[in-house]
Design brief:
single chain, alpha/beta, 6-stranded antiparallel sheet, globular
Amino acid sequence: MKHNILITSAGQRVALVKDFQETLQRFFNDGKVYTTDMNPRLAPAAYVSDGCCEVPRCTSEDYIESLLTICLGNEIGLIVPTIDTELAILSANKEIFAKQGITVSVSDYDFVMMCRDKRNTGKFFEKHGIRVPKAIDKYHPAFPLFAKPYDGSLSTNLHYIKNAEELTEEILNDPKLLFMEYIDKEVYKEYTVDKYYGKDHKVKCIVPRERIKIRAGEINKGLTEKEPLTQYLYDWLETIDGCIGCICIQLFLNPQTGDVVGIEINPRFGGGYPQTYAAGGNYPEYLIREYFLGEKIEYFDGWKNHQLMLRYDDAVYV
C-alpha cells in the first residue's frame, strides 16, 4: 500500500508540511510528504517537503491529469488540498484517484459547493440552529453594516460601512456583495474552529481558536478555548452529510450573552491549523489512521485548553 502524502498548493504552508512529516514518520519511517505548487522555486513549503512538483493552475483542463501523474510517480496514497479554488474539481474527480488507490481528503461535491457560496452557507447554519448576521436591504440600510462577496476568500473585498457617505455606488452595484449586520468586535470574540470529520461524517475533534489578531486574513495571535463552543458545536453539528476530513468554521461569540453567529465554513485545512496541531488536535494522524491503517476514530477532546499562539515571520534561503 502507498503511504506517501501529497499536499497541494503548498505555497507558504511550511508548518502544515512539517506537521504531516512529523506525524507520518511515527507510523511509516520511510513515508514522505510531497507538495505541489505553480511555482515551486518561490514556494517556501517546497524546500521543506520531501519533493515539490510543478502543476498548472487548478482551473486548467490538464490539472487532474497532471496531479494523477505526480501521484503515480511518487507512490502517493493521500492527497490533502489547501486552497478553496481546487476543492470542487478535486471533489468531482475523487473516483479517478480512488481507482488508483489514492484518497483525496475532500468533502463531497455538494457540501463543498455549499461552503463556497456564503448565501447557501447561511441557510445551512440556520437549518442547524446557528444564527447568521441579519440581512440588510442595501437600498434602505441601517448603519453600521458589513458587505462581503458571497464567494470570497482571503479576506478580500470586505467593507465595513459606518454611514451613507461610505456606501458608494461601486459598492452598491457590486453584484457579488452580500449586505448584513455588522458584528461588533468590541462586543463579540472572533473564532476559527478546526473540526475533523471521519469517514462516517461524524465529528471526531473540535478545537476553537480565538482570533486575537488577524493579518492578511490569517490568524496571527490565537488562543485555544474549549467552552462554550466545543459543546455547542458538538450538539448542533455532530454529523454533517458529505463532510469528511478537516474543516474550519468561522464564528463570533458574545461572551456576555452567549450569542453565537455563524459566518462561513472552509472545508479544508485552514492557515491557522498548526495551532490546533500544537494543542494536540492531530488531524494528520486521524487521516493516516483512517485511510492508511483502516482504523475507526473515536471522539477526542483531550487537547490543550488556553494555549496561546504568537506567530512571527521566518525565511527560507536558497
